[in-house]
Amino acid sequence: MNEDGPGRLPLLVIGFGNPLRRDDAAGLVVADRLGAVPRPGWRVLSVPQLVPELAASLAEARTVVFVDAGLPGVADRVRVEAVAPGAAGESLDHAASPRGLLGLCRLAYGRSPDGWLVTVPAEDLGFGEELSGRTIAGIREAVGRIEDLAAGPASGELPRAERCPTPRVQTRLDRSTTAEGTR
């Protein structure tokens, strides 16, 4: 599990997905929203896919939150689940899974952060950049839940995975409404 040490970053958020496949961009939008506000102790990454090279960033964190779009018809609401490290090398070919990346981090660095996966509901993964209404609402909820997760208990410590509350998120609609000044 997580070993706290000097210089360890409290929270790493990694949003991933494809911005050209409509709702698949949900993880990227959540990361963009969270990264738009400077937050001490946070590092927010927006990447097209999880790759083994991210293990070094995980090794610097106490907690990592992965954010992705769910499969249409499977994820009907925002889900927050603890993620345990997988076996070394699990799902580490072209793109990694959260479990595989945590396992690689543990293998390479002797430790891994507490892991969470936030899944935002998706309805349309076709080509395009527009988000569905369900995904927009899910992004908003996911942003809030991640902020709640980071707030942790009153002690100021990030909660460990086994006792962490479910987090919330936001989307591209929020970005467009902010640009128009109607947020």
Automatic annotation (TrEMBL):
Residues 159-183 have a biased composition (Basic and acidic residues). InterPro entries: Pept_HybD-like_dom_sf, Peptidase_A31. CDD domains: H2MP_NAD-link-bidir (cd06066). SUPFAM superfamilies: HybD-like. It comes from the Bacteria. One of its GO terms (biological process) is protein processing. Gene3D superfamilies: HybD-like. GO terms for molecular function: endopeptidase activity; enzyme activator activity. This is Hydrogenase maturation protease. It comes from Aquisphaera giovannonii. Residues 151-183 are annotated as: Disordered.
